[in-house]
# Entry
Amino acid sequence: MISRPRSDRQAAAPLVLALSLSACATYNDRVEAPVRAFEAGDFIAAEAMFVEGEAIGSPFLSAAEAGTSAFVGGDFEGALDYLHGAEDAVREVEERAVLGGEALTEDLLSLVINEGQKAYVGEGYERVMLHSMLGMCYLARGAPDDVLVEARRVDQLLTAEQQLYDTDYRAGGLGHLLSAIAYELVGKPGEAFIDYKRMLEKDVGGELTTSALRRLGGRLGRLDELDLPEGGDVVPRDWPSVVLVGGLGMGPVKREIRIDVPIDGGVFAWAVPDFDEGTSPASALDVVLPGRSMRVRASEVEDVAAVAEQNLKDRIAWLAVRSAVRGLLKRQAAEQLRKNSDTEWLALAMDVFTIASERADLRTWRTLPQRWVAARIFLPPGEEVALELATDTGASVELGSFRLQREETMFILARALQSGITAHVIGGEKLPASLPETPQASNPSQPASDAPAPKP
# Structure
């Protein structure tokens, strides 16, 4: 038996590896099926595919994507389990972040063959969003104290990111809103007032924020702390409210920017990720009270796409440097092979490996929405009210008729996708559909809102 020369055996390994890397699907390819199921409204199928999909290759993303699918599908207990699994996958990174942003720099400096080989622990904004999602799950469970725990974690992680990159993200509005609502639920309006003030400082929440500050500032005697225009309804203290928190569309997707530069005797490869802005079937979500001819537009509290893009821009210099260093090291290895080998195709295989292996990391939490919006409406206690949700593009869903007791808070957690609006109501007394409408007095009490009515 004739043995193959050693140089040929050595050449086979990098060539086989290069060909296998060339054939590797990107993360976007690997999650195409569950993402399409999610967008189509088949959340159970999406959840199963995210959990069972070994090709995802990230415990954090598998759990986060499955958790979002369960959440939008209304399985809040299942969502909690998944999202806590995602938290477990990134716990070490979060603890280092809380100790100080500088503790994260070692991750930025690490070198691997390509970015996709590293364990994915989420972008900074994704770890922040994870705890906002957990907060909403606890809100659905009726556990305001747990909501406050998650809101504090949001603030800690966001502060760490801002210190690390010496920037001020227009982020955290959803966490502040959840915290404010939870403080109101546990009877601490002064703490809620502080959270709404922080939303005002970040310029998120629009009229939802300013109306809440007028309402609480008036009760607390703290209106002099604010520079707000006059306006808004005076809401009686015992009136119940309906709080909508909704996600619009699908969040940003990472794409690859790459440069393959032919140079003397070889090639230099460089690749980094970039975000698109995601997609949304609508730009607005409204709460509609058809029996009262009232339509309240939800205000934007978190622009996920904009924060994701800014967060990546702050990291892009590190990613670009790492890619360039990898490219130089691979180029040096190819040159060394040419010098030490008479087999030309061995060096050629190394060039192929250089191109195939330098891939941008496109992993990202795909099922997050493009934006989070919220609205709050105060209603007369004990009166029947019919509720609907509608987008500015004509999609709508009837939620039914409800009656709320004094000081009660009812929640609507919703998501607007290409397949339509999915919504889940927590709290309130749902009235039978066959029940005739409650006769209105000649001068019935009119609802008040912490959100603007849309322009005609």
About this structure: The chain is about 45% helix and 20% strand. The longest helix spans residues 304-340. The longest strand covers residues 254-263. The two ends are 87 Å apart (CA to CA).
